[in-house]
Design goal:
The model has no long low-confidence stretch (mean pLDDT about 85). The protein is elongated and about 50 Å long. By secondary structure, it is an alpha+beta fold. The strands form two sheets. A two-stranded antiparallel sheet has the order 1-2. Helices cover about 20% and strands about 25% of the residues. Helix 1 links the parallel strand 3 and strand 4.
Length: about 60
């Protein structure tokens, strides 16, 4: 992959990886947390079907 700007050209050795996110916390900042395990697994499977290389599973809120 090649990224060109006005002043530079960056060459990457391979394509970027796509990350799918599954939020398990009900107080997720985006409001899409899954309490049901099967629903969370279905979401992960959908991300993989859509081309995700990595699945990030958020399980605990970092908020105070």
């Amino acid at each position: 992959m090649i990224l060109r700007t006005r002043t530079r050209t960056l060459t990457f050795p391979r394509r970027p990886l796509l990350c799918g996110i599954v939020n398990r916390s009900v107080d997720s900042f985006s409001g899409d947390g899954f309490v049901d395990t099967e629903a969370a697994l279905d979401q992960a499977r959908q991300h993989v079907a859509n081309g995700a290389d990595v699945i990030d599973i958020g399980a605990e809120s970092a908020g105070t």
